[in-house]
Write a structure and sequence with these properties.
The protein is mainly beta and 225 residues long. The protein has helices at 8-11, 85-95, 146-151, 190-201; strands at residues 2-6, 20-21, 28-37, 54-67, 70-82, 99-101, 104-111, 114-123, 126-139, 155-159, 165-171, 177-186, 207-211, 217-218, 222-224. The protein is globular, with a radius of gyration of 17 Å. The model has no long low-confidence stretch (mean pLDDT 90).
């Protein structure tokens, strides 16, 4: 997870109706995240043959939505890249998300306690790369830390062209994280994310870590205004 502080004005066009930007200690962040889906089932019940294990890379930011007395902290995806056309199409239909189909590959290497994770996706003739080198053992994020803020958003929001947005709930146990000694992005990002966000990704991340992951349940979404 590569995390970059950005000006809120850069994200305002992507904020779904009914939500507001979330911040950590007054700072607004976007995250470039690479991970593996394993043993995937549509709506938690239906495995799709040849589409149960696959990579994903997404660029996301963080919002809040009030529902009665509940303050729901959620994630908005600017773009999500997967290597199967059927996965992208299904996710757009079920969750209203901005999925893209592109060739992808990954590599994860372990040497003693250290790991190196790398995710790549191809745009035209060029490959983009997200990579991170860990150090030490994973630990639970400290209470009130940026790592906790990034990993513990349990709602998803997707703006709809016809108005309003789709809201869906995500359930997983809190993740442990590794610190990183080296992490970053290389490649041409403006095609997917626009020139403003592409410029942000060319910087060194303000914070980077690797999470251990866990089983995740993504519930079917509902339209809200």
């Amino acid at each position: 997870m590569l995390n970059y502080e950005v000006e809120p004005s850069l994200l305002n066009p992507y904020v779904p109706p009914g939500t507001t930007l979330d911040s950590f200690q007054g700072r607004t962040y976007v995250s470039l995240v690479g991970f593996r889906f394993c043993h995937t089932k549509l709506l938690g019940c239906f495995p799709v043959p040849f589409h149960v294990d696959f990579d994903e890379v997404n660029l996301r930011f963080y919002v809040r939505r009030k529902e009665g007395g509940d303050d729901r902290r959620g994630v908005v995806f600017i773009a999500e890249v997967v290597p199967r056309r059927a996965i992208a199409t299904t996710a757009r239909l079920v969750y209203g998300e901005n999925y893209k189909y592109l060739p992808m590959r990954h590599r994860i290497e372990t040497e003693k306690l250290n790991k190196r994770a790398e995710y790549q996706w191809q745009i035209g003739d060029h490959w983009c790369t997200l990579s991170a080198q860990t150090v030490g053992v994973p630990t639970q994020p400290h209470e009130g830390s940026l790592e906790q803020f990034i990993t513990e958003h349990y709602w998803g929001y997707s703006a709809q062209r016809t108005g309003g947005c789709i809201e869906y709930h995500v359930s997983h146990v809190p993740w442990q994280v590794w610190a990183t000694t080296k992490a970053g992005f290389e490649g041409e990002a403006s095609t997917l994310y626009g020139s403003g966000l592409a410029t942000v990704l060319q910087r060194l991340p303000d914070c980077a870590f690797v999470a251990d992951g866990s089983p995740v349940i993504v519930f079917k979404g509902n339209r809200v205004q």
